[in-house]
Structure formats: C-alpha cells, structure tokens
Amino acid sequence: MEGLPATVAEELQALTYRERAVAYLQVGADLTLVGAGGHLGAYGLAGLRLGEPAAEQAFFLEGLLPPVETPYVVPSMELASGRVADLNFILQDDTLWVVLLDVSAERDAARRMQQKAYDMTLAQEREAMLNRRLEAANAALLATQRELEASHDALARAHDQVQAQAAELAVWNKTLEERVSAQLVEIERMARLKRFFAPSLAELIVSSGNERILESHRRDIAVLFCDLRGFTAFAESAEPEEVMTLLHDYHAALVPLIQACEGTLDRFVGDGLIVYFNDPLPCPNPAERAVGLAVAMRDAVAALAKNWRRHDYQIGFGIGVAQGFATLGQIGFEGRFDYSAIGTVINTAARLCEAAKDGQILVTSRVAAAVADAADVREIGPLTFKGLSRPLAVCNVEALKVA
Amino acid sequence: MTATLQKKICMLGGFSVGKTSLVKRYVQSVFSETYLTTVGVKIDKKTVDLSDRIVNLILWDLAGEDDISSLRMSYLRGSAGYVLVADGTRPSTLEVALSLRQRVEADLGPLPFVLLLNKNDLREQWAIRDAELEDFRRNGWWVESTSARTGEGVEDAFKALAGRVAH
What we know:
Chain A is an alpha+beta fold.
C-alpha cells in the first residue's frame, strides 16, 4: 500500500477483505489446525476444531501438506460450497497460512470464454466426423454405383449376345425352312420322277436341277421290249389271284434289274415292259446296256419258270431290242403325265419282241453290231414285220461273252 | 474400530470426455445432459467402504486440456492415484489421455491409475477398436468401459481404484 494515503489503503484492504471473502487457516508444523479466521462460512469451513489435523477438516488440503515450497498458489479451486478460491500458501514462523481469496467471478468469466471455444471445437469435431461418415457413405455409394454400372454393362453385353444369337438363330431357321422347302420340292420331284426312272436316275435328274430334260425332244435311244409267251392263255384259264401272284413275282424279279442297269422304265403293259437307255440322261453304249439287261432278264425269268412249270404253267419269255431316234417327253395332261417315247424304234422293238420265241433276245443288226464285242450274237435272217415297209435283219443274242 | 484413510485422486483427460459427469454420477448419482466446461479444479469427496477400512476419496476434477503443456502440475501434487478418461466416440481423446499419462508418470512417478473409455452408451458411434484396448490390457493396463449417463461401470471403477490406492 506504499504511496497510498492511509485512509485509502485502509478502505482498499476493507474492500478486498469483503469482496474477496478472505478467509485463512493456520496450520502448525504437526499439520494440525492452530488458527482460522475470515469468511470461513463462505467456503463451508464453519465449525473447525483447533488442534485437530487440518486436512481432515479442510479435505481440499489432502496431499498439499506440508507444501514443498512457499509462497505457493493453487488457483481457481471450486469447493463443495460452490465458491471458487485461489489458495495461497504462506509460511511464517513455522506456521503455514492458507489464505483463501474468492475468484468465482473470474472463474465464471473464464469459463464462459472457454465454453464457447470448446463448444466450437466440439462442433468442428462433429462436423469432421459427419464429413468422414458422409465421405465413407459416398465412397460406398460410388462403389455400389460402379458395381451397378459393371452389372449393367454385363447385362447389356449379355443382351447383345442374346440378340445376336437370336438373329443368328433366325437366319438358321430361315435357312432351315428354305432347305426343308427345297427338300420337299426335291422329294416331290423325286416321287414324280421315280415313276418314270430308276431311283438312281431320278436322283441324278433332281441333283442336276435340270427338268428341261423331261421336255419333248429327239434322241438316239436303245429300246427293250419284253413280255411273257402264253400269258394270255394262262390268264384266261387261271384264277385272278394266281395271275396277280405270277405278275408280282415277275415284276419283282425284273424291276430291280432295270434299276441296276439304270434303264428308264416306260411302263408296264400287263406282262409287257418297255425300257429305254440313253434317255432322259445320256449313257455310254446304250445298246450294250440294253442287251446286258435282256440277258439278265432272261436268266431271271428262267429261274421263275422252273417254279411255274411245277404249277404246270406253260409260260415263256421273249425280248426285243432296237436302237434309233425317237421323240421323248411328257405325254398327257395336267394331273396325269407320263414320260414316253414315240418313234419307229419303239415299234421295231415291239415287233422283235413279238417275234421272239421263248428264251430269245431278238435285236436289230445295228444293235448286234454295237454289242459284237460283248455278246455272242447269231444272225437269224431278214424278217418282215407288220407296220415296217422293209424286211429287217434280225439277230439273236445267245449269251454274253465272258470278260 | 475401522481405520479411515484419505486419498487424493485426480481426474485427467481431454475436454468434454465426461470427467465431471463421472464424478457427479459417482458422488451424487446424477447425470446432466448439459455440457459445462471445468475451469481450474473442482473438489469433491466420496467415502468408500472397503470392508476392512474406510477411504475418503478426495476427487480433484481437473479442467480438460488437449494441450498437455497447459496442465498445471501443481494440481497433481500429493495424488495417490488418478483416473484417465477418454471418450470412446472420439479417438483423438485416447491420444490425449496417453500423453497425459506419460506427463504424469514423468513428473510424479508410477501411480495407480485406471483408463476409462467413457460414453459406452453411444456404441453406434464408438470409434475405438476393441483390439486396441486389448493391447493396453496385455501391457498390464487397467482399462474399463463406462457410461456416466447410465452409470455403467462407474461405481466399480472408482471403488477398485480406492482399493488400489488404500493398500
């Protein structure tokens, strides 16, 4: 208080004592309370007992006695009473003075400032934490979005693949339909052609794709006529079932031979058969083929005839073969077409067949010349035939030469 | 007659980890949702009956400091033990607690202490891995989870610490 007038200094001390709620404790060297005074009640220290341990009565002194240094201050201590005090430790003549000065107002002011700072820091921490969570959620969303995009791409690729496969399938279906249609057409054509031609020939015609060969045309062909001797008489006397059985056996034996030789079967006329060679598809050595077929037919019917004789059927077999130009093509009208040949060569073969005795294969001189290397042929002499203006040199084929 | 001891225990930890709330829950069995920062130190007393003796725990609830250099070591003088408090929803407060422990041990030597991971009632916001706590326990630390709001683990932790400082 140096420099202050005595009255002011005294007033100031009184003011400090009042406003700072000054209180004090005196602690002896044995740590017992030896004195106390001031505003003790403000700090919840009323009723202190002198001579008793100080820290047991003022428990905030626990651990602080004896002080390691003086003067010593423990600032801003809130006591159980709610008052906040600075504790000033002052040692004087072996007595420790603990002076309490109220700093509640200062503490409250400091707390208001600190509270704002901490509230702001906490808000920033919360914001940062929320940001981290948002970023994590955002990253998870982005990852999910990428997965979705990848799935979408995969789905799109699968879709495109399915579309491409569907388009490919459609093309295959169309191709298949076209093939089926084409095959149906071929089957129909084949069925129609098989009526006229050997199956192999019919297939050849179909595969060649050229049906114009069925149109009317002229060609040099070999014609084979054959029929049974005595069949008319047999048919008159035998039962119809016997006739049909005989014809069935007869056709079953001959038709495969015709097909094997790739001859064109014109038609059945009862027991008669007409076969061409070199039409509608050309073939080398038509006369030779016709004679080869004739010999095979004769052998086949001879085998059948053994059985017929056991039934007492008097039936023989004759064949005529001629070669020459004929007009060939489809004959008939819509719904009923036949492939047939017209010309003198047909009549000639028919007449030769008529003239042939059982087991004979009568051929024209042209045919005989054509097969001279392949067959043993014996000249019979010129024969006159109905419908033919001049006699015809006729030969009989006795056997094929052994190759 | 049962002997009575008196032991000073300091509450240490970063700000807003719940030191004052833990003391209030332990001493007065109440909890306030309002956060009121502590300036300086607040003194409370709790008498603990340890069956063989009575211990008066003088609880020094120190202002939370994130900057450990601000810690007034004068407050810690004469402590028999301390409670390290961290907020389980804020990992940075665990680092503060570990730094405070280093500082205290450097100045006062090894003292009994317990590490409390507070705010255990906010498990959905929990940000500290159990494996990390297991590491502390393997190193001989005493670690507990507490909730000043529900009271979970509070009484047991203080009573156990009282037992350690009293023997």
